[in-house]
Every structure is written in structure tokens, then in C-alpha cells.
Design brief:
Helix 3 runs antiparallel to helix 4 and helix 3 runs parallel beside helix 5. With 109 residues, this protein is mainly alpha-helical. It starts with a helix and ends with a helix. The chain has six helices and no strands. It has one domain: Serine Threonine Protein Phosphatase 5, Tetratricopeptide repeat, CATH 1.25.40.
């Protein structure tokens, strides 16, 4: 099995864990997906994983860690010119800032 297929499998399992509220297991699977995406040089997949890990940390109450993952994802997507992906991460980041009462940052996200 090639590395992208392995990455996709870990990503899908991570998404299932995320959807079921098992955020720690989601992070574990998404971290494994990132390793495989990096080996396959699939930056868009890595960025998607970083965003979902950020959302997992938000749900675990660790917004400090979440924003780092969102910013890392956004950096990749900016480099790729992926406007749709940037919008998704911007929504994640903006919602996190609203939750923290950081309305100026949320408005500018």
C-alpha cells in the first residue's frame, strides 16, 4: 500500500473518532496520517489533518494548542493557494477566537 493510501486510511479513521467525540484517538490517527502525508509529499492532506487536530483540541478545551495547529494548516494552504481550505481553517480559527472573547481577531480571521 502506498503512503498516500495509508495516510487516507488514518485520516478517515481520525475523522470517525472525531465525529464520535473521541478526540484523543482522533489526534493519534491524524498524527499518523500527517507522517504518511509528509512521506508522500501531500501537503493538502497534511493541512486537513492539522485543521482537524486543532478542532479536536478545541473540543478538549485546549484552545492554546488548537490555534497553533490552525495557524500551521493555514500556512500550508496559503503556500498552496488553496482558498477553499483557507476559508475552512479561517472559520475554525474565527470560531475559536469568538469562544475566547477575542472578537477583533475573529472578525479579521
Amino acid at each position: 500500500m502506498n503512503t498516500i493510501a495509508v495516510a487516507e486510511r488514518h485520516f478517515q479513521i481520525g475523522q470517525i473518532y472525531f465525529g464520535s467525540g473521541n478526540y484523543v484517538s482522533a489526534i493519534r490517527e491524524l498524527d499518523a496520517a500527517i507522517v504518511a502525508y509528509e512521506q508522500g509529499q501531500h501537503l493538502a492532506g497534511k493541512a486537513a489533518c492539522l485543521n482537524t487536530i486543532g478542532l479536536s483540541y478545541v473540543n478538549l478545551g485546549r484552545t492554546d494548542i488548537a490555534t497553533k495547529y490552525f495557524n500551521d494548516s493555514l500556512s500550508i494552504l496559503l503556500a498552496l493557494g488553496d482558498k477553499h481550505g483557507m476559508a475552512q481553517v479561517g472559520l475554525s480559527l474565527g470560531a475559536t477566537w469568538v469562544d475566547l472573547g477575542m472578537y477583533t481577531q475573529a472578525r479579521d480571521a
